[in-house]
């Protein structure tokens, strides 16, 4: 059992900061982590048009090669101090499963770790980024016709990601399973989403996959909770679903977000995986 942050971004994140790998690593050492995973956003399929206005959802393939080489060097530099895993956060995009499988087949052997996440929702032939901004989320609600329909589509897509055949290198951990709640204080629910979350946990359990216990929602101004919230993390633990704490930090000073709260309730930074 080790202290582990399994979801960290990097200077290669186009929508992150210029904080260096070293800044993240030194912060991890300060917090007493024995192992960390850098899980930068994997390149999107070449034929997929990034729907965010800034076109900065993920790094390019050229950047991916440099990212891997950079981390290989740092693994050697810090080998006596901390275990550094080379990882990716891979987007599940409905309709692009074969492209994602090819990406994983090409690069999977270079990875120590990976997360599979849903950020994009498909509506007919149109895609929207769920968490880009509250204004974008408002547009998504209008397109789907109601907030509940957006939630329903998100959780349906999440289940598709869990059940998808992405080949032998498919990530075993599923990222921030309640990301749809990111703007919940601006768009409060008038419905109960517990059946959706429970269905996701049930499928996770059946498929033998791992839960990302993600602290990033705590610092999102309209969310203010873990992804998923603590009661659902406890439910996952009761169901025997393995979990890994992740700060999902996009800058070094956010590494360890929610660490003390998770430790006090679950001890989950000492990975159950």
TrEMBL record:
CDD domains: PHP_HisPPase_Hisj_like. It catalyses: L-histidinol phosphate + H2O = L-histidinol + phosphate. The keyword DNA-binding does not apply. It is an enzyme of class 3 (hydrolase). Pathway: Amino-acid biosynthesis; L-histidine biosynthesis; L-histidine from 5-phospho-alpha-D-ribose 1-diphosphate: step 8/9. Its EC number is 3.1.3.15. The keyword Translocase does not apply. It holds the Pfam family PHP. Residues 5-214 form the PHP domain. GO terms for molecular function: histidinol-phosphatase activity. Keywords: Amino-acid biosynthesis, Histidine biosynthesis, Hydrolase. It comes from the Bacteria. Belongs to the PHP hydrolase family. HisK subfamily. This is Histidinol-phosphatase. The gene is hisJ.
């Amino acid at each position: 059992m080790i202290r582990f942050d399994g979801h960290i971004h990097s200077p290669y994140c186009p929508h992150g900061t210029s904080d260096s790998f070293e800044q993240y690593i030194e912060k991890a050492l300060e917090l007493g982590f024995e192992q960390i995973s850098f899980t930068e956003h994997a390149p999107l399929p070449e034929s997929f048009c990034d729907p965010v206005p800034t076109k900065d959802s993920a790094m390019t393939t050229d950047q991916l090669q440099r990212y891997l080489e950079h981390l290989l060097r740092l693994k050697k530099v810090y080998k006596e101090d901390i275990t550094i895993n080379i990882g990716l956060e891979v987007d599940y995009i409905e309709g692009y499963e074969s492209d994602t499988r090819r990406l994983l087949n090409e690069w999977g052997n270079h990875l120590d770790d990976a997360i599979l996440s849903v950020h994009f929702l498909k509506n007919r032939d149109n895609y929207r980024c769920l968490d880009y901004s509250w204004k974008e989320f408002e547009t998504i609600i209008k397109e789907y016709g109601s907030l509940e329909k957006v939630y329903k589509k998100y959780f349906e897509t999440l289940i598709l990601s869990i059940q998808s055949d992405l080949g032998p290198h498919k990530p075993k951990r599923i990222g921030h399973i309640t990301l749809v709640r990111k703007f919940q204080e601006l768009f409060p629910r008038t419905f109960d989403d517990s059946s959706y979350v429970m269905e996701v946990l049930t499928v996770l359990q059946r498929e033998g996959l791992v839960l990302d216990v993600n602290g990033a929602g705590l610092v999102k101004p309209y969310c203010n909770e873990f992804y998923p919230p603590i009661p659902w993390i406890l439910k996952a633990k009761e169901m025997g679903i393995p979990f890994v704490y992740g700060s999902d930090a996009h800058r070094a000073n956010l590494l360890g977000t929610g660490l003390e709260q998770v430790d006090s309730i679950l001890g989950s930074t000492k990975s159950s995986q």
